[in-house]
Amino acid sequence: MADYKNNISSDEDEGRYEDTEVILDRYYQHINALGREGKHKECLSLCSKAIEIADDTRNPRLVKANIRMFMASIFKDLKKYELAILQVEEVLTTVKKREWSQLLLEYQEEYAEDEHWQGCSFRDREKYFEALQFFDHSIKICPNIQQFYISRAICHLKMKNYKQCIYDCEEGHRCPGYSNPKCYLVQGIAFASLNKFVQARACYKKVIQLDPFNETARHEFENTLKKTCLYADSDGPANTQFQLKPFY
C-alpha cells in the first residue's frame, strides 16, 4: 500500500515537473526573442519570473544557475558590470563550473578596464581628483594589472604628489608579467622632482635597459648627472622647475 502511494506521489511530482518545464520552455523562447530585439528590461523581468518557478523542476539549482548566467550576460552587455558580477557570484555559491569561474574573472577584468578607461578620460581633461577615484576602483577590482598603477602614478605626478607616485610605481613593479619601462620612467621623474637624483638615475637606467631607444630616459639620465653637481640627494623641497615631458 505504501509503495502504491509513493508511486502516485512520484507520478504527481513528475507531472508537476513536466508542466513547469513546458512553461519554462515558453519563457525561454520569449526571453530569447526579447533579447534579439534588444528589449533588455523585459527580458530581465521574464528571467526573474522564470527563477521563481524553477523550484518545481527536476534540477532547480542548475535551472536557476543557467537563468542567472543569462541575466549576467545581459547586464555585461549593458555595461552594468557590478550587477553582472553579482549574478555570477550568486551562481557559484550553488553550482561550481570552471568556465563560469573563468567568466567571473573576465567580467571583473572588463569592469576594471572600463573604470581605468574612464579614469584616463578624466585625467586627460585635467580632472585629477575624479580620475583618481576611477583608478582606485580599477585597482580594487583587479589589483595585479601594472598599467592601472602606472596610470594612477601619472595622475599623482600631475598633481605633484610625488611620494604617492613613487609608491604606485613600486606597486606596479610587483605586478606579474611584462615589466613596463614607463613605470620606471614615471618613478624616475618623481624622484627627480624631489631632487633625489641618484634614485632617479637608477630608474632611468632601468628604462634604457628595457627600452634602449627611449630618448626621454636618456635625456633625463644626462640631466640628473648635471643636477647631481648642484643638489645634494636629500629629502629637501621639490624641484618646482622640473618640467614633465609628454611620454604617454
What does this structure look like?
Helix 2 packs antiparallel against helix 3, helix 3 (60-77) packs antiparallel against helix 4 and helix 7 (146-158) packs parallel to helix 9 (181-193). Mean pLDDT is 86; it is low at 1-14 and 233-248. The protein folds into three domains: 13-95, Tetratricopeptide repeat domain (Serine Threonine Protein Phosphatase 5, Tetratricopeptide repeat); 97-143; 160-248, Alpha Horseshoe (Serine Threonine Protein Phosphatase 5, Tetratricopeptide repeat). The protein contains eleven helices and no strands. The chain is mostly helical and 248 residues long. The chain has helices spanning 2-36, 40-53, 60-77, 81-92, 98-124, 128-141, 146-158, 162-173, 181-193, 197-210, 215-228.
Quaternary: single chain
Number of beta strands: 0
Over the alpha carbons, how many angstroms does the gyration radius reach? 28 Å
Count of helical stretches? 11
The domain count comes to 3
What is the architecture of the largest domain at the second tier of CATH? Alpha Horseshoe
Q: Span from first to last CA?
A: 82 Å
Question: Low-confidence spans: pLDDT under 50, at least 5 residues?
Answer: 1-14, 233-248
Protein name: TPR_REGION domain-containing protein
